[in-house]
Amino acid sequence: MTAHAGEERPSTTHPDPMPVGPGQRRRTRQVVVRWDDNQVLIGSDGPVVVQSMTNTDTAEAIATAIQTRALAKAGSELVRITVNTPAAAAEVPAIREQLDRMGCKVPLVGDFHYNGHKLLHDFPECAEALSKYRINPGNVGSSAKRDDNYRAMVEAACRHGKPVRIGVNWGSLDQSVLARLMDANSARAQPWDAQAVMREALVTSAIESAQEAERIGLPGDAIVLSAKVSNVQDVVAVYTELARRCDYPLHVGLTEAGMGSKGIVASSAALSLLLQQGIGDTIRISLTPEPGGDRSKEVVVAQEILQSLGLRSFAPMVVACPGCGRTSSTFFQELADRIQRYLREQMPVWSTQYPGVENMNVAVMGCIVNGPGESKHADIGISLPGADESPVAPVYIDGERTVTLKGDHIAEEFQAIVENYVERRYGAKA
Questions:
Q1: Residue 238 shares a structural domain with residue 376
Q2: Closest CA to 31 of 78, 80, 74
Q3: Which of 53, 240, 248, 314 fits as disulfide partner to 303, beta carbons 3.0 to 4.6 Å?
Q4: How far is it, in rounded angstroms, from Cα 31 to Cα 223?
Q5: Is the domain of 277 the same as that of 334?
Q6: Contact criterion met (CB below 8 Å) for 278 and 311
Q7: In a domain, 134, yes or no
Q8: pTM of the predicted protein model
């Protein structure tokens, strides 16, 4: 649009540079979770930790150990298991022993609820085999027994030298806290709405429970807090307030997120808003798996959220176009999927053999419009022919066109080029 005489032209410059990247990490205490020689740091001096939870019957030790190992192999740095019955508690040492025999040193977190005080007392081997406990102060017993049961669980953690996640949940909120806050709210000149009272009850319950644990004797650097709700805006509001009012590390997640794309999108929205503000020290994506689905998918989603935000790198990222009328063939989609799965499958070996490979970027593009440009910006990229284009696929390495592939074996040849690039750039000789 042309400005008329006397009109002020709109400025095309910004007085201040546009902010880029995640905010500074919130400063917290440092919690150490360990098993044998594996030590996981939770808090602002360590990376944001990824964790998951088994859905096997813990009383079935072999099945639980196998799933735990699969989650750890996928990248879960802590794995939580349900400890809900005497049979489950009795098998925890066997699960730990089986994992150790498989060379899996991932720390186990015991998830305790109504009878946790009794199980920790009756099964000291279970209490010792776990690396961390999760306690929900809202369901450790009726009002008459709550304080005694909670004290017993915290004392068990002190006795065995284990850190604790104090995890409040809106589905099992401490009713005494909620009642107290509702009474205070009714006395306000302008009472809050019910949603605001519920949020405040979650924050208050978490912080007061942590303070009580410290009075009982649990060190302040052995406490992680969480406050789980299933609505994105509630998650953001509650954790923002928790971060403002305490310096305990925070375990962040959207509880009961759901299945498939709904669960992924809701979790990504909630966690990204918090992580961008520097809030969140350990995360879990609570996806409902499809029948027979892979439990480790939630681990991959957690990793990809952190990697997309630039907070951590876990595996090389594959850039691929969505496809359009110029890409009538599905070959580029099949190749992108093949390369992405291949890169992730190699990471258990590559992470130790090729340090830094997790930062590599690969482009698999479907036509000439953006293919060459995206491939040049990636560490290694391929631009496949679109509809009516010449049946050739130029490959770019470090911004330079190096070879052109054609024929029936483009996928195999490109994968071999990726393998050679990884070895040359990230190998010991490099």
A1: no
A2: 78
A3: 314
A4: 7
A5: no
A6: no
A7: yes
A8: 0.91
Does residue 202 share a domain with residue 80? Answer: yes
Spell out the residues 6+ positions from residue 371 whose beta carbon is closer than 8 angstroms to its own. Answer: 321, 363, 365, 381, 383, 384
What pLDDT, in 10s, does the model give residues 43-101? 999 999 999 999 999 999 999 999 999 999 999 999 999 999 999 999 999 999 999 99
d(CA 157, CA 67): 26
Instruction: Kindly calculate the radius of gyration of the chain based on its CA atoms and give it in whole angstroms.
Output: 25
Of 357, 394, 358, which Cα lies nearest the Cα of 376? Answer: 394
- My answer on whether 407 and 285 are in the same domain is no
Instruction: Give CA–CA dist 301/259, Å, rounded.
Output: 13
Which tokens go with 93?
């040492």
Q: What is the pLDDT of residues 222-252, one digit of tens each?
A: 999 999 898 999 999 999 999 999 999 999 9
Containing structural domain, residue 321: 317-428
Q: Is 222 within 8 Å of 157 (Cβ atoms)?
A: yes
Number of residues that make up the chain: 430
Residue ranges at the known binding site for [4Fe-4S] cluster: 321, 324, 367, 374
